[in-house]
Amino acid sequence: MGLLTAWRIHRLQRRSRYRAQLRSLPSGLLPYWSSSAPKEFPGLPTSPWFFMRACEGLMLFFDCAARRGRCCGLPSKAADSVWHAWTRFNAAGLDAFCVQHFGRAVPHLDAAAMPVPMDVALQNTRDAIEAISRRTPSDLALPALFILDSQLKVPGAPPLQKTKSDGGDCGTACGSACGSDGSASDDSGSDAGGDSSCGGDGGSCGGGGD
Q1: pLDDT digits (tens, 9 = 90+) for 136-163
Q2: For residues 70 and 74, what is the distance between their CA atoms, to the nearest angstrom?
Q3: pTM of the full predicted structure?
Q4: Contact between 203 and 172 (Cβ < 8 Å)
């Protein structure tokens, strides 16, 4: 890693809302991700800087999923690539990390198994980000997580979209689908089957799709 990259990563960790989480990432995760992620996501950049930005996006999503108590969609394949790699690298360690830093585990759920349409899950993520960052719903700027792939030049990511009115595909990759009590939620108040959607271990759930 070059000095400039190391400085950029240090600055990101120092300024990030999730600096404690970023400094607590498993030491072996970066090399494991860099060797395995491109096999699942062809053409994915594997620089340490890309990894840290993707991790910060994943931390924000975990925060959304843990707080929201409803289905949340992850609109970033960069962040999803870290989630997939971490699950293979050490699933139990990932669960423990999420419990320590976000209060609950965030198990992974295939997008096809989401109990609500992905556009609903994505809106829940936007609402959660607005609550976390204290943005107003009328703010036209897309949350950073929704443009992360475009900023990082992930293959297949749409042109950079800065406002909600731009529309288009945000590169949806994953979602979460559990209620605040650990049961799966369909966002309408009905039980969607916590055991089948969440693996019976509570928390929020996530899923990856193409």
Answers
A1: 555 556 788 999 999 999 998 887 765 5
A2: 13
A3: 0.78
A4: no
- Nearest to residue 16, comparing CAs of 132, 107, 158? 132
Q: Where are the beta strands (DSSP E) in the chain?
A: 72-74, 174-176, 207-208
Radius of gyration (Cα) for the chain, nearest Å?
16
Binned at pLDDT 50, 70 and 90, residue 175 comes out as low
pLDDT for 165 equals 46
Distance (Å, whole) CA 41 – CA 63:
24
Burial class (CB in 10 A: 0-12, 13-18, 19+), 38: middle
The token pair that represents 116 in the structure block:
């609500």
Q: How far apart are CA 100 and CA 14, in angstroms?
A: 20
Q: How far apart are CA 31 and CA 27, in angstroms?
A: 9
- Residue 112, classified by CB atoms within 10 Å of its CB into exposed (0-12), middle (13-18) or buried (19+), is exposed
Span 168-183, mean pLDDT?
48
Compute CA distances 43 → 40, 81, 84, 158, whole Å. 9, 12, 16, 15
Q: What tokens were used for 21?
A: 């989480």
